[in-house]
Design a protein that fits this description.
The chain contains 5 helices and 3 strands; from the N terminus they run ααβααββα. It has 102 residues and is an alpha+beta fold. A 3-stranded antiparallel sheet has the order 1-3-2. The two termini are 30 Å apart.
């Protein structure tokens, strides 16, 4: 299965309404932090907190241009998220953790 800590970090990116809204905005393409601030009506420090979680997950990448950071979805990170969803929700895999009660 891999490292559950890294997998949990990826799933954490999807566990907040603001982060889901950010991901939705980033689906349209690279977006400057200033534009994200306008759409979200949150403080810059709150945006920074959410962007750190998203970037740490690998789903989002940022590049600095001047004093602003421009964010975009990472194709590799998004593919990894899809893989993990399938991995953890695939019910066709035979379970070896059956009940041993008698």
């Amino acid at each position: 299965m891999g490292d559950y800590t890294d997998q949990a970090r990826l799933f954490k990116a999807f566990c907040d309404g603001n982060r889901l809204q950010i991901l939705e905005l980033l689906r349209q393409g690279e977006t400057c932090a200033c534009s994200l601030l306008e759409h979200l009506q949150i403080s810059q420090s709150t945006l920074s907190y959410h962007m750190k979680i998203l970037c740490d997950s690998g789903v989002v990448v940022g590049r600095t241009e001047g004093k602003w950071t421009h964010y975009s979805l990472s194709p590799e990170g998004c593919a990894r998220a899809r893989e993990l969803i399938v991995l953890f929700t695939d019910t066709t895999v035979a379970s070896t953790h059956g009940c041993n009660c008698t």
